[in-house]
Amino acid sequence: MKWLNKNIEIISFTWWLIQGVLLLLNEIRVYYEYNKDSFDSLFFIGIGLIIISFLLFIKNKQVILFLGIILLLYSIVSLVTIMFLLLWAWRLTIFWLFLLIPIINIILSFKLVALKRQ
Hints:
Distance between the termini: 16 Å
Low-confidence stretches: none
Radius of gyration: 16 Å
Number of helices: 5
Order of helices and strands: HHHHH
Number of strands: 0
């Protein structure tokens, strides 16, 4: 647990950067595959996640606390969205796997906020 507390910025940076890049690449793929006229909101969310992940290296506690709260809200919204999608397609037998990433998001962002509040 001490290791997690010591390296929370690096873990958060890599976790949110990976999510932002994957979301951005998926939206670019959808844009070119379906010949869309403009990007969806998920494109801008991916860019936002990449920017927020780089802003986590700022040493100001208030900025990190604010970014942690934003990431926590994003995690809760993504969890609720996935829950609605899973309820809509209730035949999925591996539904717990889809809930894993939003739950890890919530735990990681809550840990980031809790450590920076001290």
